Amino acid sequence: MKRTFTSLCMLMCVYIAAHTQVAEKLRELGLENIRLRENESVITVAFEDNVHRGTYRGIGKAIETGINEIQRGSLEMMVLDNQIPQLCITLPEEIITAYKNGEINLRDVYAQMQITTSTDEIVQKLKDTEVINTSRWKTDIVLYPEVKLENFRLDRIYNYQVNLSPAIQTSPWQGALFTAQVIFPIATNMRGEPKRIRPGVIALSQDVRFKKNFLGRITMGNFTDNRIGAQAELKYRSNNGRIEVGGVVGSTGYSEINSEDGWYIGKKQRINGMLKGTLYEPRFNLEMSLQAGRYIYGDYGVRGDCTRHFGEFAIGVYGMFVEGELNGGFNFTIPLRGKTWKRNRMVRIKPADYFAAEYSREPYGKYINEKMGRTYDTRPDENQSSRFYQPDYIRYFLIKEAKE
Question: What pTM did the predictor assign?
């Protein structure tokens, strides 16, 4: 009887040690906000990847680590962004066992794993567990490049701006992000503010995840395109992430650095609001979106986008119909050098992950004179590839990049 009890205790110790090793290995990868809970049949773990560029690369590393470290049972993984749940990935025990026995390869694992945007159940499982390697107050100094081209002048082909816009970014608590950016002009053929050192995005945002796949965000501060104020967003995602619907509403005033007033902030508030819908087509990795509503200066219109994802590259075209006037153009996002940037200390200096730009065929007349179709961004890294937690997209490019 004593031998049986001793053997059982030894097996339990080995089991617990092996599963605790999962958290330690994830920490060695540089992953943050790790939470872990285990029982005899499943190990549940959450993590956030602030090391790897893009969304799918770090998830792949975490999955490989998890299935190699656990001894038995299933594996559940919750993917976080700024400590907010984004995805739930489940690997049943039979898949893990088949992989370890050499019956299937890593591509087969990715193809057969379950991945969903629904995280309510796994959030409850990890409630009140210890956070390992927290990201709170860890600070990034990110060097953002900016290139802007405008072609609405008759006396020259383009107005251009080339800027270097470093930003300090830190997360003081769950879901919060503080950004303080300064824009340094490098080259321009424009006059006035584009020639001056000026504030970029200086804002505090708060992300919230509600039940049933609803996500919200409130942001206050100085935004792009000379706007200062507040904005609120709410969206719903389907379990497979292929459908998103939501809306955004903002109240902003004018913000500018000039020679007379220094930092001028207008008192007049302008209300903007949009209803949005997005559909993801997994066969061709196409993201199609439609939005309609009120722009900054009171004009109403509709905009449709179609974006093709090529790994971390994204290329899109769009069209607008605003107050009876047509406009359109294209945009793109390309990854910059450096796939991994570990945060070994509280402060990390790194380049931006992506460079994004948009070209607009702005016709002469109303679009320019009446400032039609104008919007703003509340973060300096808003583009088609950053924080793209789409399940089909992640599965597809994990399979594509996996070794045989």
Answer: 0.91
